[in-house]
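We emphasize that the prediction below concerns an isolated chain of 149 residues; any contacts that depend on oligomerization or on bound cofactors are therefore not represented. The input was used exactly as deposited, without trimming of termini.
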Amino acid sequence: MSVRIDFYILPDLDSDARQRFACRLAHKALTHGHRVHVHTPDPDAAAELDALMWRYPPLQFLPHARQAAAHDAEATASAPVVISHEPPVTPADMLINLSQAVPGFFSQFDRVAEIVIASEKAVMRENYRFYRNKGYALYHHELDQWEEQ
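Result of the prediction step, given as a token string:
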């Protein structure tokens, strides 16, 4: 099992922190040459994240596209970061999961990032158990003051 699962634990309580951290993580992955698929729970969350990526992180450009449907490969083929509530239609090596459930397609990525905020730890423990029971390598990153870095 070569998929690496990273859990990023944020001290924040608001769900907006998950989206802001996802933007930062996608930007960092992009600067290291990775293609990223950001999985959202629904179309509204995808639209919100799309809007946020145009302005966050501040003073940094994050090239991205939104995959609105399961057959939207042409619109997203050249984008290094794709946002969608659907399974990916273009290849990527990193998945940032913003849904609370483990997506059924997670194993097609080299890396999976689960972003956990303090108010959702109980829900995310289920994801942790799922990956652990399947034998995946799990890594934890406790992040304090992550927006100041």
